[in-house]
Amino acid sequence: MESIISDSYAVHFNENAFNSLNAHLAKKAYSIIFILVDENTHELCLPQFMAEINGDYQFEIIEIESGEVNKNIETCVGVWEALSELGADRKSILLNLGGGVLTDLGGFVASTFKRGIDFINVPTTLLSMVDASVGGKTGVDLGSLKNQIGVINQPIMVLVIPDFLNTLDNRQVRSGFAEMLKHGLIQDKLYWEALKHAESLEDMKKHILSSIKIKNNVVLQDPTEQNIRKILNYGHTLGHAIESYFLENDSKETLLHGEAIAIGMILEGYLSNKLTNLPFATLEDIKTTFLSKYEKVEFLEEDFENILKLMKYDKKNSHGKVNFVLLKEIGNPVFDIEIPVELFAKAFAYYKV
């Protein structure tokens, strides 16, 4: 695959990824190369990754626990302390080998340790390949509230090795695929139509480059999310609130990011039909597509009320207003749309039917 050039870094694929990494490490002569992993990538990805690195360097491996529940400042403190104890200085580098939780957290740790050290993201899940590792967003959750603490800071490069996806279970793959479907909805109807027919992991691998290009093109227009970049949050205003609620509620099975965002895209599709004239047939197509790929989740009335309360913490909000990204049609999104409160119950009712 061809490399994708962003504003200050490149996304490299497969053999070119390792060639670029080796050339960079040889050129920079870092004092210590730190590799951040979780228990899964330590076992399943690190040996293959290390086998591709050429040169005699000092390596230190730091392991954190996997899962959104560990994407918090306490985990960051643990990594900062490990870096200090292992002798990290401003000439060290952190390689983040893992999914979106790990690359988000690792990027934030690197951006703040000694006021900033270099980092490289090596995403190992479909979600992190097409979404979390591109665009420079780093950060952690505040309790159950998604991505409340963080900075926008670019990695040195992103290395995408699709073979790492062979280590994932189907649920994790589907979680990442939701973000790819979102890319079609906000930018390209033909891409949406093509993705609807992707069933296997091999089918999805073929579209990774296209999804990264779509996200990168949007980010290049608006690196700090002042306007057009907000469209990447389609499905996320309600989706993040749903994800946070299921994460903090012991009586609920925790939803993966893509599973919650898939629900959010149906709900915000309904709002689009009511407020921005998204055709009803298109809304039905969106709902049918997502429900064919993601199991329907049951919502109780008290769930609905608590989810709405969590929306006030969404990062796109300003001046006390909850702002949404909606669709006029597939490939034509609009942002900063306020929603009449009475429509939320109707959106959940539409999802439940």
Automatic annotation (TrEMBL):
Q: Which Pfam families does the UniProt record give? A: DHQ_synthase (PF01761), DHQS_C (PF24621)
Q: Which UniProt keywords apply?
A: Cobalt, Lyase, Metal-binding, NAD, Nucleotide-binding, Zinc
- Gene Ontology cellular component? cytoplasm
Q: Indicate the segments forming the 3-dehydroquinate synthase C-terminal domain, all copies.
A: 176-317
**GO annotation, biological process:** aromatic amino acid family biosynthetic process; chorismate biosynthetic process
InterPro entries documented for this protein: Dehydroquinate_synthase, DHQ_synth_AroB, DHQ_synth_fam, DHQS/DOIS_N, DHQS_C
Domain named 3-dehydroquinate synthase N-terminal is located at 62-174
What is the designated name of this protein?
Answer: 3-dehydroquinate synthase
Q: What does this protein do?
A: Catalyzes the conversion of 3-deoxy-D-arabino-heptulosonate 7-phosphate (DAHP) to dehydroquinate (DHQ).
EC numbers on record:
4.2.3.4
Q: One GO molecular-function annotation for this sequence?
A: nucleotide binding
| Cofactors that this protein relies on | Co(2+); NAD(+); Zn(2+)
